[in-house]
Write a sequence for this structure.
């Protein structure tokens, strides 16, 4: 700048604006240069080192979000929910933090206030633990969770949880089963198809934020993380009838155990399966014995029921003829020097029908003799005794059936009338079902359908049939078995169902004790029958283990069979012989609009109760407000009225035709039921 | 423009030469030229205005985006920071508009008072300040946190400009010029340092030296001051644990957690960024990402393009600020504009250098962008001053230092003839 100095003017000063401005330019240049340098560095970080930084970023930002699969539902064949999962809440506490801040007593007090029956000692123990995280066992519903949230206590958080709910309580408890606290199936179908029900947990990329996982890009469809839904072959209505009947049996006979199997012989589908003792799957089980499904897991000596199988086999082999008569030794047959076979009803000459009707052990043994050990064994095996049923229910008993080479003579004779071997009630029902189904064995099934998490049908039960005997043979045996119930000397007269023919067989098996032979005072009483006999819709097996105050199948089991048979026929809408079909719904809600009103309960009844502390279910009965008595006999109507908690006033005789609700007089509603004789009622 | 070079001091202006020379005052006593009234009342610089508005707008948006998760986690309101920053931005706009309408020279008159106010604030914060992150820098007043060091920065810039403009050539002397200026500035720096704010201390020191340098101090003094300051800064770093750790981290190349996260943010943004609002580092990974490290959030969400835009805007700010300084009608205006532009430029430079791991971490904010009410208000007020300088306003009577406070060291200190004073001209302005 010196060169531009104007000569003659004073020396420019340091504060001269020109010098000042020059220095300002220097400062500006330095700052802009600095900014440019920073920009270069920014480019290096953002562009050159981009991949490395982005990778490190992803590593710390991305997490996998796991959505625990919701366990699939279990429904009956009509879609009624038997097991489902609720989203509930659990309390997680930080005992250290709570104690450090002196809020533990406060929490304890609040919890006791919220849940009065909480286990205080256990809660105290949890609070005293030197841990930073404890999940309390209590299950809270949404309302309770909101209350807990409103406390705003430090170290108290809510965690979502699922709770398995069995809205029908005891109904089909053994079939449905139960899950443990870890959500693993431990009993029944819950165990048998645990893998399918459990489903796969869904994973989704999530962003990690201050210790939480956030789903930023859309959500995770909870429907994906879901186990398969099962549809059982059970019919809740029939199951409820069965449960009810079992309750009655337990009350009347105080047995060690009892079970009922209701089977559709044409498809092998189990319509009802129940045992006593039982349990409420919503609550902890008190005794292990409660969990045994006697109908499936226990093996008994089937007793006289086997005679029908023996006869069918002998007819098929041609060793006996249908109209042949055998000498029944007047009730006592010295079979071997050491063994005597006895009959309850001593007889001389009996035809095959009478042998079954009067349940002659001696003549059954003789028929077995004619078959020979090897053939008898083969036939018993062909009826799938001694093998585990192919069923999704865990622990199905295969029963005991020794090889025929190891049979003693008396054992061979015993097996002909159902002693000396064992089988579960389910096996007996399935084998009997083969006779009822025209000689074709259908493997019993408990799973009707399986839907995957997208609602698509991935499995549907198709009956697996296996021909055992010719149709004619099976028909002949069924005809003979009708005489058990309907003939004068039949041992199963109590099983008669008004309006239907029944083909059945009583059984009164002596119970064996370990190594000591047979007891004299303990029996296994059962009745198995197919109804209607001509074209059986169901096979019902009622078994009672060691009843008190009676031991014959006809005495103990047959009446239950009769009651169940009638109710199930009405439920299924099977017409009585020669009569118009009864209205299908057996129980409808009042007031009745028309006879064709559907029997299905309204949806809210199908839905599970909300979680929380559910009342323990004592007696599960599917019940409408007011029962429909039409089509029932007087006894049936009274029984139904009893169960529905109404009084009835019976007018006339025969079958209920009309009913009307009388003005309420006492505590219970009173229904007047008009009975009319059926013109074409069967004579028997 | 009537005058070919408005920056040309009127002493050199051939038309003025005749009137200035005969006064025959010694150079040391040359009164500060008041500028040529003919070049007064320009339009304010639109570049400055637009740049400041753009930076403020980016700041409000980025504070919302970067602080959203922290706001929800801490205050349970997603918009907590947005609302506050928005309110302060509006307030700042008003303050900026008002100050831009003022005659900046009014600040010269009240420079000592302003400086005292700034020092008082710094003293006050030592006693009643609230501690945040281990630093006592804020005074809580009615739900608002005021940061006195922000005010002190601008007060010091005004004070330096006023003092140096008045001292003129005396600045070249050590005892009479350099030392008193350094003394006031050292006092300010000491008080700021007492708040454990080394970043702002260094910023103030740099500001002082830059303004001294431009005002014409001997370079030797500036270098001597730097050499004197270096051991003090060293002691401050080595003597304070966390600073030493940061420094060691920096030297060893190992990044502290915060710097590491900052690099991840900028690095994962790439050229175009992950998208506005889509950044993930704000989810608890990058601490202070809405305040000191907001540029990292800009880099993550808007990419290198965003950083370049911010750098460019600061560049424009520095350029136009310096231009306003060079074209200021008087030395006070020049020094003040220079001081403010230097403050913005240096502070941005230091902040961005920290974010990009060029220098060790300092607790220093990015002007306009970082969340902080008092910082934004002061920044916009400073822009208002720059706008006022760029406007070359006619002097107001109230701004006249000579009438209210005659210079004591002017033996022949007679008031200038009435007709010659621009203040008179201003007073005669038609309403």
């Amino acid at each position: 700048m010196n060169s531009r100095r104007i000569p003659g003017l004073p020396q420019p000063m340091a504060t001269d604006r020109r010098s000042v401005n020059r220095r300002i330019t220097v400062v500006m240049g330095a700052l802009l240069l600095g900014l440019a340098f920073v920009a270069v560095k920014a480019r290096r970080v953002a562009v050159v080192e981009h991949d490395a930084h982005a990778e490190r970023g992803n590593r710390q930002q991305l997490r996998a979000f796991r959505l625990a699969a919701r366990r699939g539902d279990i429904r009956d064949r009509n879609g009624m929910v038997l097991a489902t999962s609720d989203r509930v809440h659990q309390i997680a506490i930080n005992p250290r933090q709570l104690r450090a801040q002196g809020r533990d007593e406060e929490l304890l007090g609040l919890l006791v206030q919220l849940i009065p029956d909480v286990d205080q000692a256990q809660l105290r123990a949890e609070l005293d633990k030197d841990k930073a995280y404890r999940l309390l066992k209590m299950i809270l519903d949404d309302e309770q969770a909101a209350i807990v949230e409103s406390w705003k206590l430090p170290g108290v958080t809510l965690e979502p949880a699922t709770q398995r709910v069995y809205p029908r309580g005891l109904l089909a408890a053994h079939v449905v089963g139960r899950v443990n606290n870890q959500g693993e199936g431990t009993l029944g179908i819950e165990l048998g198809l645990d893998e399918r029900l459990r489903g796969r947990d869904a994973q989704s990329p999530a962003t990690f934020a201050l210790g939480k996982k956030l789903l930023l890009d859309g959500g995770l469809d909870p429907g994906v993380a879901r186990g398969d839904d099962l549809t059982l072959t059970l019919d809740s209505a029939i199951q409820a009838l069965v449960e009810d009947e079992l309750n009655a049996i337990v009350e009347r006979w105080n047995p060690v155990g009892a079970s009922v199997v209701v089977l559709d012989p044409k498809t092998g589908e189990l319509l009802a399966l129940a045992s006593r003792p039982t349990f409420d799957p919503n609550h902890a089980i008190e005794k292990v014995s409660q969990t045994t499904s006697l109908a499936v897991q226990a093996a008994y000596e089937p007793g006289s029921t086997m005679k029908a199988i023996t006869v069918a086999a002998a007819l098929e082999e041609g060793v006996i003829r249908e109209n042949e008569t055998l000498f029944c030794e007047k009730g006592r047959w010295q079979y071997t020097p050491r063994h005597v076979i006895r009959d309850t009803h001593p007889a001389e000459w009996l035809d095959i029908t009478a042998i079954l009707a009067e349940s002659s052990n001696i003549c059954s043994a003789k028929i077995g003799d004619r078959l020979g050990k090897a053939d008898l064994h083969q036939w018993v095996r062909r009826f799938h005794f001694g093998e585990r049923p192919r069923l999704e229910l865990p622990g199905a008993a295969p029963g005991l059936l020794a090889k025929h080479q190891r049979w003693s003579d008396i054992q061979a004779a015993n097996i002909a009338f159902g002693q000396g071997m064992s089988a579960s009630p389910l096996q007996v029902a399935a084998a009997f079902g083969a006779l009822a189904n025209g000689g074709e064995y259908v493997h019993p099934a408990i799973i009707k359908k399986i839907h995957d998490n997208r609602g698509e049908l991935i499995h549907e039960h198709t009956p697996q049939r296996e021909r055992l005997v010719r149709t004619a043979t099976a028909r002949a045996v069924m005809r003979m078995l009708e005489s058990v119930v309907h003939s004068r000397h039949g041992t199963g007269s109590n099983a008669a169902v008004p309006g239907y023919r029944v083909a059945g067989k009583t059984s009164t098996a002596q119970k064996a004790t370990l190594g000591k032979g047979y007891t004299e005072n303990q029996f296994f009483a059962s009745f198995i029958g197919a109804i209607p006999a001509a074209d059986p819709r169901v096979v019902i097996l009622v078994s009672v283990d060691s009843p008190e105050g009676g031991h014959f199948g006809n005495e103990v089991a047959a009446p239950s069979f009769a009651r169940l048979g009638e109710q199930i026929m009405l439920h299924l809408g099977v017409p009585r012989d020669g009569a118009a079909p009864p209205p299908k719904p057996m129980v409808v809600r009042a007031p009745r609009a028309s006879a064709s009103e559907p029997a299905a309960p309204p949806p809210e009844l199908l839905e599970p109760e909300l979680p929380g502390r559910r009342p323990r279910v004592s007696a599960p009965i599917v019940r409408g407000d007011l029962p429909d008595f039409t089509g029932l006999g007087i006894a049936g109507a009274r029984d139904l009225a009893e169960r529905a908690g109404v009084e009835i006033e019976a007018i006339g005789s025969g079958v209920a035709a009309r009913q009307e609700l009388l003005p309420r007089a006492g505590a219970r509603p009173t229904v007047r039921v008009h009975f009319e004789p059926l013109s074409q009622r069967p004579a028997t | 423009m009537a005058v070919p070079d408005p920056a040309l001091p009127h002493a050199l202006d051939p038309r003025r030469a005749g009137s200035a020379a005969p006064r025959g005052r010694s150079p040391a006593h040359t009164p500060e030229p008041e500028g040529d009234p003919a070049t007064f009342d320009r339009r304010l610089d639109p570049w400055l205005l637009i740049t400041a508005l753009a930076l403020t707008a980016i700041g409000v948006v980025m504070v919302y985006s970067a602080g959203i998760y922290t706001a929800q986690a801490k205050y349970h309101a997603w918009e907590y920071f947005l609302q506050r920053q928005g309110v302060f931005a509006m307030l700042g706009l008003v303050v900026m508009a008002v100050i831009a309408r003022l005659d900046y020279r009014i600040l010269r008159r009240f420079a000592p008072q302003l400086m005292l106010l700034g020092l008082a604030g710094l003293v006050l914060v030592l006693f009643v300040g609230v501690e945040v992150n281990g630093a006592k820098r804020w005074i809580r007043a009615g739900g608002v946190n005021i940061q006195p060091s922000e005010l002190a920065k601008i007060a010091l810039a005004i004070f330096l400009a006023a003092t140096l403009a008045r001292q003129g050539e005396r600045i070249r002397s050590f005892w009479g010029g350099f030392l008193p200026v350094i003394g006031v500035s050292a006092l300010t720096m000491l008080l700021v340092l007492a708040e454990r704010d080394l970043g702002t201390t260094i910023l103030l020191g740099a500001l002082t030296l830059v303004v001294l340098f431009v005002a014409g101090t001997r370079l030797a003094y500036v270098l001597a001051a730097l050499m004197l300051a270096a051991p003090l800064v060293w002691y401050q770093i080595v003597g304070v644990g966390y600073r030493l750790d940061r420094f060691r981290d920096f030297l060893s190349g190992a990044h502290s957690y915060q710097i590491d996260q900052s690099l991840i943010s900028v690095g994962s943004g790439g050229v175009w960024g992950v998208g506005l609002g889509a950044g993930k580092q704000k989810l608890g990974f990058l601490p202070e990402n809405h305040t000191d490290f907001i540029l990292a959030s800009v880099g993550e969400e808007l990419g290198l393009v965003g950083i370049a835009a911010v750098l460019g805007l600061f560049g424009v700010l520095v350029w136009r600020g310096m231009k306003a300084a060079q074209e200021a009608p008087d030395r006070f205006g020049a020094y003040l504009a220079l001081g403010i532009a230097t403050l913005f430029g240096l502070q941005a430079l230091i902040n961005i250098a920290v974010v990009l791991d060029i220098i060790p971490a300092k607790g220093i904010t990015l002007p306009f962008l970082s969340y902080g009410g008092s910082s934004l208000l002061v920044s916009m007020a400073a822009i208002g001053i720059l706008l006022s300088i760029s406007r070359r306003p006619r002097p107001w009577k109230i701004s006249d230092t000579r009438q209210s406070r005659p210079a004591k060291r002017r033996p022949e200190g007679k008031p200038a003839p009435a007709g010659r004073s621009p203040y008179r001209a201003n007073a005669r302005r038609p309403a």
User: Anything to note?
Assistant: Residues 449 and 460 of chain A are 4 Å apart (CA to CA). The longest strand of chain A covers residues 517-531.
